[in-house]
Amino acid sequence: MAWTESFHCDVCNKAKDEATEDWWLAWTETVSGAPGDAEQRAVKLTPWNNFLAHSAEMRHLCGARCVHTMLDRWMMAKS
Ligand SMILES: [Zn+2]
After folding, report:
1. pTM, entire model
2. Could you tell me the distance, in angstroms and rounded to a whole number, from the CA of residue 3 to the centre of ligand 1?
3. Domain total in the chain
4. DSSP 30-79
């Protein structure tokens, strides 16, 4: 059974269709091994993958421009 998946860019809300390339997935992780108890957060980025895109923590990004915007927001938000 074919079902239509619908993803939207988490920055600009553009809808993804099958023809669009150059979408990206981003998520945050905590890096272990940092000195002290500080939570060392990191952003990970990977080219679009339909399987991974279903993961709850994934951010969907429609291209380099929105990746940059997401990174800018994340960098400004970190404390
Ligand atoms: Zn976008």
Report:
1. 0.82
2. 23
3. 1
4. EETT-STT--EEEEEEEE--TTGGGSTTPEEESSHHHHHHHHHHHHHH--
